[in-house]
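Q: what sequence does this backbone want?
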């Protein structure tokens, strides 16, 4: 089974189409249950896939590492904006099966929606993952909005030759 696990409702960005962190009362900024309880809930599953989600999941790296240590047989996925890529150690990154990096296409479009300089940070993160030997599925996770040209944004990301797949929404 695929489990989406919110590590925090907090985010370090304020993208135009999202607005940033969830209110704490809607999606708590801290995990409200113990890792023990989570392990008990999942450990009977023979083929668990765990996807870390947020907010920005890398704002809670300690929780991510603890879950991965306690459930070593699971497959792991993370969806991140990529800015805080150094919050996890290299060996943890190599343990992921899939990493989704949020990027909206060309620099102008990504920076318009996600903030100045974010395009470059995401590409740095993608290159970093390749350089440290991450061999899983690296997915560009696009949000398409009014300023996007779907053909140009997808083609741009394909031409970078960094991503294994492009996903848009
Ligand atoms: S990185 Fe994701 S969660 Fe954070 S503001 Fe942007 S769209 Fe929202």
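A:
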């Amino acid at each position: 089974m695929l489990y989406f696990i919110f590590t925090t409702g907090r985010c370090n960005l304020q993208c135009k189409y999202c607005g940033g962190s969830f209110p704490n009362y809607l999606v708590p900024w801290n995990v409200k249950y113990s890792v023990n309880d989570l392990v008990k809930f999942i450990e009977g599953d023979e083929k668990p896939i765990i996807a870390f989600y947020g907010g920005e999941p890398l704002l809670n790296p300690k929780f991510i590492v603890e879950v991965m240590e306690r459930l070593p047989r699971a497959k792991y996925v993370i969806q991140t904006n990529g800015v805080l890529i150094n919050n996890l150690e290299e060996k943890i990154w190599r343990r992921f099966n899939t990493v989704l990096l949020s990027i909206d296409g060309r620099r102008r479009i990504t920076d318009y929606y996600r903030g100045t300089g974010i395009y470059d940070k995401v590409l740095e993160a993608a290159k970093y993952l390749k350089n440290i030997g991450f061999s899983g599925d690296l997915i560009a996770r696009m949000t398409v909005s009014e300023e996007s040209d779907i053909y140009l944004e997808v083609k741009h990301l394909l031409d970078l030759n960094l991503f294994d797949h492009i996903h848009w929404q």
